[in-house]
Write a structure and sequence with these properties.
The protein is α/β, with parallel strands linked by helices. It is about 30% helix and about 25% strand. The protein is built from 10 helices and 15 strands. This is Cyclodeaminase.
Length: about 325
């Protein structure tokens, strides 16, 4: 068994086209029905303002599968500690023996989450998309743009965040990467000229409304990954010409589709729901015109973790 630390993993794996292809292949396998993926195991540690999520999946035919443990303890910054952490355990799919432990402290989750956003834009946004509105100013606000630049010629970023100081700091970071960046005081202003909108917040109430959507925009919503989080108002999804998610079940429980789940737990979604992996596997395009509005809700799947963990081990073995 091999044990790899974050520094080793970060040196081997970055946000690049090879990693994007690995995660995209995981989505496609899920869409073909070639994946065994149980529901997310979630546990609250209420007295410490913490939670733990466990995700896993097996891609049939792959020699390995991963189990990821991802704790989030949100008072940690007061103690001088990161709020997010975690590791991935990689097992042989033939013997069940542990091949490796990737003590990545959440690094690989960051990478595969950013790449999933780029994959959604690759398949759903207009090919000539150049301008992105980012809602939020945290790590994913930076990494989503880094990944998007693999698939679209991004030149301009508009940012809104609840704390203007955070948005200003974000603007400095992104300008250093050669981008034109504008800070806005409202979501509506940030989104006014967007080709792509990316929501990256832990909001518990909707921040994006249908009135904020310009013609032809693509929206990637990746912040809602728990039952108490919401970023999109129902009107955004109702206005969309195509709604896509990573998995419908997760979107209805953790993501944006829970807005359409009744108090009795019944799904009452009044539009067609597409799954991203199925679209990729079939080579299907749901954008029929330049003026269409597309929305993709990403809650994070176990198959993404198995895909990026397998890719990381290949890179590490080749060093």
């Amino acid at each position: 068994m091999q044990l790899y630390q974050r520094e080793q993993i970060a040196a081997a794996v970055s946000i690049d086209l090879d990693a994007l292809n690995a995660v995209e292949q995981g989505f496609a396998a899920l869409g073909r029905g070639d994946v065994v993926q149980p529901p997310i195991l979630s546990m609250a540690i209420e007295e410490s303002n913490g939670e733990v999520d466990v995700k896993t999946a097996h891609i049939r035919g792959n020699s390995r599968f991963a189990i990821k443990v991802s704790p989030g303890f949100f008072d940690n910054p007061k103690l001088g500690l990161p709020s997010l952490n975690g590791l991935m355990m990689v097992f042989s799919a033939k013997t069940g023996l542990v091949d490796a432990v990737l003590f990545d402290e959440g690094y690989l989750t960051m990478v595969r989450t950013a790449l999933a956003g780029a994959i959604s834009a690759k398949h759903l946004s207009r090919e000539n998309s150049r301008r992105v509105a980012v809602l939020g100013a945290g790590e994913q606000a930076v990494k989503q743009i880094e990944a998007l630049r693999l698939v679209r010629d991004i030149q301009v970023v508009d940012v809104w965040a609840r704390r203007e100081s955070a948005a200003q700091d974000y603007a400095i970071t992104m300008r250093d990467q050669g981008l034109e960046v504008h800070v806005h005081g409202s979501v509506a202003d940030a989104c006014r000229h967007a080709d792509i909108i990316v929501t990256t917040t832990p909001s518990q109430s909707p921040i994006l409304n249908a009135d904020d959507l310009p013609e032809g925009v693509h929206v990637t919503a990746m912040g809602s990954d728990a039952p108490d989080k919401r970023e999109l108002h129902e009107s955004v999804m109702l206005m969309a010409d195509a709604f896509v998610c990573d998995t419908r079940a997760q979107s209805e429980h953790n993501g944006e589709l829970k807005a359409f789940v009744t108090a009795t737990g019944k799904s009452d979604v009044p539009f067609v729901v597409h799954e991203l992996g199925a679209l990729i596997a079939r080579g299907e395009q749901v954008r029929s015109s330049e003026s269409d509005i597309t929305v993709c809700d990403l809650t994070g799947t176990g198959v993404q973790d198995t895909a990026i963990a397998g890719f990381a081990l290949e890179r590490l073995a080749g060093q």
